[in-house]
Amino acid sequence: MVTIKGIRQGLLIAFSAENDPWLTRLRELEGKLAANEAFFTGGQVVFDVGPLTLTCDDIQRSVTLLDGYHVQLLAILSDNDTTKKNIVAMGVADVLPALEIPRQVPTETMKIVSIDDSQNGATDGALIKKRLRAGQMVKHPGHVVVVGDVNPGAQILAGGDIIVWGRLQGSAHAGAFGDLGAVICALEMAPTLIKIADLTVRNHKGKVETARVEGQEIIFSSWDKG
Amino acid sequence: MARIVTITSGKGGVGKTTTTANLGAALALQGHKTVVFDGDIGLRNLDIVMGLESRIVYDAVDVIEGRCKLKQALIRDKRAEKLSLLPTAQSRDKSAISPQQMQQICNELATEFDFVLIDSPAGIEQGFRNSLAPATEVLVVVNPEVSSVRDADRVIGLIESSGKGPAKLVINRLVPMRVKRQEMLSADDIVEILSTEIIGIVPEDESILAASNRGQPVSFAGKSPAAEAYRDIARRMTGETVPIRVPQDGETIWSRIFGGGR
Question: ipTM of this predicted complex?
């Protein structure tokens, strides 16, 4: 299994300890990359391969695959001595990079504050306390909370939910990895585009609303009606 | 310490050059040593709008490439002794100059002048980045129309993330009658989207077009509403408290003041 979660440095891609050949594992990862190209492109990832044994070839193939999707491999974390040697031999880092350099989001540099609290059933999210302007994009594998307006021409891509404490006029894609349970809420709904998983609504207008999927459709329900 | 003010917009044709020329003239007539600097290499216009084209000998690219001294490239405006123009090259393009070189020129200008006004090219590419690099403050010119506001929003975001913000807004070419008929965005509509402080609203004014073609910026002598608006902006830039006038249908009324974001 391949699991993806957000970390300060970018995305952590964890490979569970199975004995399938590395190529099979990479194919599984490629499936995820291909399904959400917009999300991954320009991103930075760290592999966690646990006890798996990777040859130099395996590492080279991984880098090539990621290159194809414009994703940068920052490091490979491993508990396996052979793998560790190969990682170093291939010139890849084997520890998480330090956080001195602020994380770059490709289109625009956004300060992303990670709500890292895996206790109490809480999940990861990014809190953005500013107005998102035209051309600015926020991508996060977890939830995205914006305290401020999302202007026309701004874009949010989230693996989880999107909450806008303000007016949503740009485009918002929640459940980007296919989660139909994701929701989008805003104090004022006036988006150019709303997507949940692969469902789309354009030019909806409403006040305080939540958008969620019911059946095969995005439904907007107002806060007042509960 | 001189103030280096970059005038930009994202979208083309909204009045950056006209604004630069008129603010330059107004600031100079109000007693501040001012230079207007054309940042639009290859598509220079500021010299034409200022009516100084025929006096160009050297330009900013000549200065950078060592063919002349900065003083030789500066053109002193005979209509206002405190006003000068630094023209740019006609035959080159934006890659002829780097942000660092732009900074160097402005550092040198800053020793001579109180105000350096840079007329940025349209767009968000190198010409814009060159013009933004030396700025100590930024004015964004916006027309009351959706596409101009969208581009202004983009540019304000870029200004913020480059640490040059907050920018201030010049709303240009407002037609009160069309706002009233809801055919045009109002100043309120624009502020709601951009949440940026307005430094002035310039009404649409036929005399501007004629003035630009004659090379005689209206704020030199004009009594037109646009000329007054530019002179007011110049006074606000130097710290005077001048209430913002919202042009009204038919007549200009001293109206309420806009400020700050929501």
Answer: 0.77
